[in-house]
Every structure is written in structure tokens, then in C-alpha cells.
Amino acid sequence: MSSLVSPDEDNPLGKPDVPDNVQDAIRTLIQWSGDDPEREGLIDTPKRVARAWLEYCQGYHEDPAIHLSRIFEEVGGYNEIVLLKDIPFQSHCEHHMAPIIGKAAIAYLPNDHVVGISKLARVLHGFARRLQIQERLTAEVAECIWSSLKPQAVAVVIEAEHACMTARGVRTPGVGMVTSRMMGTFLDDQRSRKEVLSLMGY
User: Fold this and answer.
1) What global pTM score does this model have?
2) Which of 27, 95, 145, 202 has its Cα between 20 and 30 A from that of 152?
3) pLDDT at 6
4) What is the pLDDT of residue 23?
């Protein structure tokens, strides 16, 4: 296996050189789309596109649950909602490989321990950096927090625009899709559900 190379603007992860068959596939797509992959502006495009997709799909090479492995039990008796909202993310739809760009709100009701708040965002990004549908992304984030932290409740709400709808097909920009997943008390108790959604701004 090739060793890592020095990171740069077009290779921020320092990944090995892109295999020829991957570059050939991208050249074929460029040519099939109607352009000349050998012209000056496109000569290095296959390698750049391949390295970009390694970044876009970085989540396949990590287990998002690992970010929730370190917990803090000294919470001073705190047992109310923990919420991180307006977390920006980017993913790609598995149907057209087009961008999904949006934001998420993640909340949980702890039992006797909490996790660093940045870890909630890391869990989101770990699942988002894969080919996705928004519904599954929402469920995966919620299930990961539920199984790892074992809280009393989990709520995940994701709002995003899908380029497969805004830039092609029906071509309707400005349309947002909202998905949610509630677990535990947020699912079973209407008052708790209403409270967390209000804190999230919904």
C-alpha cells in the first residue's frame, strides 16, 4: 500500500495517489457529459475529484460511537435536557450523489453522566460523511446516542436542502426537508416532547 503524502489544498487528508482506474472512471464521465478530459482545465480534475470524494465519504472509515466513549459523571446533580442545535453539516444523497446541506439539533436527557458537547457534532459528521438519505441519517445519529449513552431520552431533528431536488429534476430551490427521531421520554411523554422541540425552535 502507498504511504501517505504531504497534505495540500487538493489533498488535505494526505491520501496516497489515486488509482488509475478511479481517474479513468472520472475521465469517462467528463467525456460522456460532453467535455474533453484532456483539455488544460480538466487535466488534473480526475485526481482532484477522487480525493474530494475521499473527504466526502470519510465517515466510512470511522465508528461515530467512539466519540461518545468518554463520559463525565461529575454533573452536579444536573438531570435536565442537554441540547446542541444549529449544527451545520454536509452529506451526499445515495440516489444521485448530490449534496445535502443543512443543520441539525441533537438533544438528550441524561441519566447520571454526560458527554462533551462537541462529541454530538462529531457523531453527526461521522454519519453524514457517507452516502445517505436524510431519514436514515436522522435515525442513525439518534440510535448511536441512545445505545452509547443510555440516556432517558434522545431527540434529533435535521433540516436540509437536497441538490438532487433543487439543482436537477423538479429544480425547486429553497425547499427544506425536516426529519425527526424521538426516543425514550421524548417519544412517550408529550410534555417532554413539546419542551425539547420548543428549545430546538420547532
Assistant:
1) 0.89
2) 202
3) 47
4) 97
Rounded to the nearest 10 degrees, how much is the dihedral formed by the CA atoms of 131, 132, 137, 143? -60
Query: pLDDT tens digits, residue range 126-177?
Result: 999 999 999 999 999 999 999 999 999 999 999 999 999 999 888 888 899 9
Rounded Cα–Cα distance for residues 172 and 169 (Å): 8
Joined grid coordinates for residue 4: 501517505
**Of 62, 61, 53, which is closest to residue 91 (Cα–Cα)?**
53
Closest CA to 189 of 158, 156, 153: 153
For residue 178, what is its C-alpha cell?
425536516
Looking at the annotation, which residues are catalytic? 93-96, 134, 162, 164
d(CA 117, CA 144): 15
Instruction: List 155's β-bridge partners, or say none.
Output: 107, 182
